[in-house]
Amino acid sequence: MRLTTLCLLLSIIVSHSVTAQEKVDAGTKLYLSQADYKTPYGPTTPDAVKEVIDRVYTFIDQSTPMGVIDTKTQDPITDYSQIDKNSGLEKGIFSLTNYTWGVTYSAMLQAYEITGDERYKAYVSDRFQFLTEVSPYFEAHLPESDEEADPQLRQLLRPKALDDAGAIYTSMIKAQLADVPFDGKAIMDRYWDFIYYKEHRLADGTFARNRPQRNTLWLDDMFMGIPSLAYHGRLTGDHSYYDEAIQQVMQFAERMFLPEKGLYRHGWVEEMNPHPNFHWGRANGWALMTKVEVLDAIPEGYPGREKVLDLLKAHIAGLTALQSGDGFWHQLLDRNDSYYETSCTAIYAYCMAHAINEGWIDPLAYGSQTMLAWHAVTTQVNNAGEVEGTCVGTGMGYDPAFYYYRPINKYAGHGYGPVILAGAEIYRLLKNENVKMNDSALLFYREAVDTDEPIFYLESKDE
């Protein structure tokens, strides 16, 4: 009985195999079979990209109101001369003065410059003008205790860290360079005074913190501080600030960039030996974006600028080697069992797309990875325009569990500016480059390819 059953089973298997062989012969092009991707794969259009960032813009615009209220009655105050100790800024989901919103303001300006959509410029203009109008009235009433002060107003009127001042100051310089109308001199002078004269530094001038240990370098402070130096030089015409920005980039890299990996460690502690090697995704994003900002601010040919560009290229090479098959990067970049993280993926997509658009890196080598990263980001923008999968604000830890278990939240502001930045540059990329599906792969070409058939041979330019 068992033998009969076994023979019958073998007969079915052989019969199925023969049938399969009859269907799959030498002419069947199995290599053209479509893969079942988890992340969208292939080309897209500028309009499709714009729809994503417009969705994010709409959510942001609704979530960051401009207004002054009586904090006891919640009644609006429209006559700013009536502001007193009981007055405060109307609360939205996101802070108007937090460093994450400095990134968002810069992103809005970038999106306006690339797409021409006036709403993005107006968002920045309206909020910067609002802050400049109300800040003088609040100055006399800000509590001496930081704990008692409204956090938004404390950051605006009494900056205590690069987080308070750097990214916002840089975005305000960009707004001035783009002729965005607002009278921000008093606020900007206050920010600059802290950044340049009051922020803690190492003996060689490198931006540092006495947190969580004495004389600790944070990759976060690369982004919070160095671009403001470079853009201050551009605004004032004093090139000594270019020199310092370049020097700071290299001093951070000497201590924190690991050439053998092409990655930065999150922190460096002067008193610690060895230094902790945790390659946190978003911190590497801040380091990558710092170099992009410095390259944008400092003109080509300026002495030392090429060293920053070389470092950018080495960092991109290290990062792309660790991109997942779904297009994301991990919370800890070299630990694949840590979770996919949206904000770092969006930052990398932006920086790589911008580097291609500026001619700093080769689109044939990096274009496909950049597009895959953008497609990954789009899966985290929900129908309401909220950005999901972003790690919340994060200090510095010296063990993997600290990073593995940082919460994610759709109201973490760190994801919003990077998504708009990435979308704007991908929009520009698609306008500039020749993107094509060929042989089931997304490829970039030097010239336009006028066929939808698989391309097995490209004629040389001489043929």
Describe the structure.
The protein is mainly alpha-helical and 463 residues long. It has a domain of 122 residues. It is 51% helix and 7% strand. It has 15 helices and eleven strands. The strands form five sheets. A three-stranded antiparallel beta sheet has the order 2-1-3, with no helix packed on it. It has a two-stranded antiparallel sheet with strand order 4-7. Strands 5-6 form a two-stranded antiparallel sheet. Strand 1 and strand 2 form a beta hairpin. Helix 3 packs parallel to helix 6, helix 9 runs parallel beside helix 11 and helix 10 runs antiparallel to helix 11. The N terminus is likely disordered.
Beta content? 5-15%
Specify the number of helices.
15
Low-confidence stretches: 1-22
How many β-strands, per DSSP?
A: 11
Nearest-integer average pLDDT: 93
Labels describing this entry:
51% helix; mainly alpha; two-stranded antiparallel ribbon; disordered N terminus; 15 helices; three-stranded antiparallel β-sheet; 463 residues
In short:
This protein is mostly helical and 463 residues long.
Map the helices and strands.
Blueprint lengths: L1 H22 L22 H18 L4 E3 L5 E2 L9 E3 L9 H17 L2 H22 L11 H7 L4 H16 L7 H14 L17 E3 H18 L3 H17 E2 L4 E2 L2 E3 L11 H17 L7 H16 L8 E2 L9 E2 H16 L5 H16 L21 H5 L11 H17 L1 E5 L2 E5 L18
Helix pairs in contact: 2-15, 3-4, 3-6, 3-15, 6-7, 6-8, 8-9, 8-10, 9-10, 9-11, 10-11, 10-12, 12-13, 12-15, 13-15
